[in-house]
């Protein structure tokens, strides 16, 4: 499971600040290269995202991080290196619909002990450590303070309460202005490369995880609960299977093996779901 979580995260830089202040999950949109509307809602979120060709993705193409790949095309290494994926190719070997095959790139440090007196050195955009600093050489490293803990230069730091953000400790790290550091970044999620994404489905989030935990697929029993005072505006509607939801509408909650999912249309075009806490184990 640990490997799975690491693999779901990919670094992106230059994240739009309008998205960063919003507390609704939008990482499914930003990971697919969707463009946020300039207009924001009361929660500081874009009122919608523009996801080019989301519902009419071609069956003979693969889509990843806003780019389109032809059958038998390889994804450039730089697109996937931070996700611990060494190779990815768009194919249709077993189904008529194109999908990715990929090879995970396991880092030596996942398996091999690197020494108690060493600090692994990480780089933005790379999955694996790129070196280590050992023994007395560690004294020359910068220190970072985050949430009461001290880190040494080159170490990866997870930002408390914000599972999508990662920083690498460096001289310019400032706990009070985290995103000002050049070595802090927001993740992208690799559900497209894992072939989990379906345009008719809805991402399901857990509070403690950055990327969708799974995708809820439409069922014939799904019902819409109308929100109070919602308006019919075709530009502000979510699609979920055959259902159309206005902003403020939700789906009747369903109990899954992973807990109770509450799904609503808040930032079109996709419905998104959150899992109730008691279901998270
Ligand atoms: C996007 O959709 C349009 C209209 O359906 C289609 O002509 C075009 O080929 C699609 N582009 C990609 C990259 O899938
Ligand atoms: C893969 O795509 C090619 C070209 O479109 C097609 O001829 C072939 O039948 C497809 N393979 C499968 C398994 O559907």
Topology diagram in text:
Layout: H1 2-7, E1 9-12, H2 17-20, H3 27-31, E2 35-36, E3 49-50, E4 61-64, E5 67-70, H4 77-80, E6 85-91, E7 99-104, H5 108-111, E8 118-121, E9 131-134, E10 143-146, E11 149-152, E12 156-158, E13 165-168, E14 184-189, E15 202-205, E16 214-216, E17 224-225, E18 237-240, E19 243-246, E20 250-256, E21 259-264, E22 272-275
Parallel strand pairs: 15-22
Antiparallel strand pairs: 1-14, 2-3, 4-5, 6-7, 8-9, 10-11, 12-13, 13-14, 15-16, 17-20, 18-19, 20-21, 21-22
Bound molecules: 2-acetamido-2-deoxy-beta-D-glucopyranose (2 copies).
One 2-acetamido-2-deoxy-beta-D-glucopyranose (NAG) binds near residues 60, 71, 92 and 96.
Describe it for me?
The chain has 281 residues and is mainly beta. The chain is built from five helices and 22 strands. It binds 2-acetamido-2-deoxy-beta-D-glucopyranose (2 copies). One 2-acetamido-2-deoxy-beta-D-glucopyranose (NAG) binds at residues 53, 56, 58, 61, 68.
State the gist of this model.
The chain is mostly beta strands and 281 residues long. Helices cover 8% and strands 33% of the residues.
Mean pLDDT, nearest integer? 87
Q: C-alpha Rg, in Å?
A: 20 Å
What is the percent of helical residues?
A: under 10%
Question: How would the global form be characterised?
Answer: globular
* Tally of strands: 22
Q: Extract low-pLDDT stretches.
A: 1-20
Order of helices and strands: HEHHEEEEHEEHEEEEEEEEEEEEEEE
The small molecules bound here are:
2-acetamido-2-deoxy-beta-D-glucopyranose
Oligomer: single chain
